[in-house]
Amino acid sequence: MELLKKRIMQDGKCYPGGILKVDSFVNHQMDPDLMYKCAQEFVDRFEGTQINKIVTIEASGIAPAIMVGFIMHLPVVFIKKKQPKTMENMLTATVYSFTKDREYTVCISNDFLTMKDHVLFIDDFLANGNASLGVVDLCKQAGATIEGMGFIIEKAFQNGGKVLEELGIRHESLAVVKSLENCQIELM
């Protein structure tokens, strides 16, 4: 996705500790045209895959996941970081956030993630794979099948991609960051 790569180089900011800030167009203020193009790219990459549900974790994955669901005409369910009082049949997993440096207990209703589901997980970043492992755990609890995972940006210098490969999970990343050393953004 050359458009996404160009945007990262133009508007992305690097912070010490391997943090890439893309909040002006991906995960705080969003560019809906770019989100739509990213979603279309995910749809194209996963074409022919048996998927009946799009899953994400709140909050930054919601926009691209909804766009994918819209294009594919599929329901989108998001895993919550806080348990609502009204949630029934809850499944939970623990997820560590690299950016926020804290653990969350995430939850989803087993009413919306079942053994009949063939899931495409969509998120903004793949870093160490912690959110992805939480999704794997929840899908395992529900008996759902993960058909693939799509990420807007992958940090190749962290282990998330390798973790997913070792688990045999197909993943697609629209832009891959090779390095953020010396706060210089280097894409693959």
Can you offer a commentary on this structure?
Helix 2 (32-45) crosses helix 3 (62-72). The longest helix is centred in the first third of the chain and has 14 residues, at 32-45. The strands form three sheets. A six-stranded mixed sheet has the order 4-3-7-8-9-10, with helices on both faces. A two-stranded antiparallel ribbon has the order 1-2. 29% of the residues lie in helices and 33% in strands. It has helices spanning 2-11, 32-45, 62-72, 130-142, 160-166, and strands at 13-15, 19-21, 53-57, 76-79, 90-97, 102-109, 118-126, 145-155, 171-179, 186-187. The protein is of the alpha/beta class and 188 residues long. The chain is globular. The relative contact order is 0.17. It contains five helices and ten strands, in the order H-E-E-H-E-H-E-E-E-E-H-E-H-E-E. Helix 5 links the parallel strand 8 (145-155) and strand 9 (171-179). The model has no long low-confidence stretch (mean pLDDT 93).
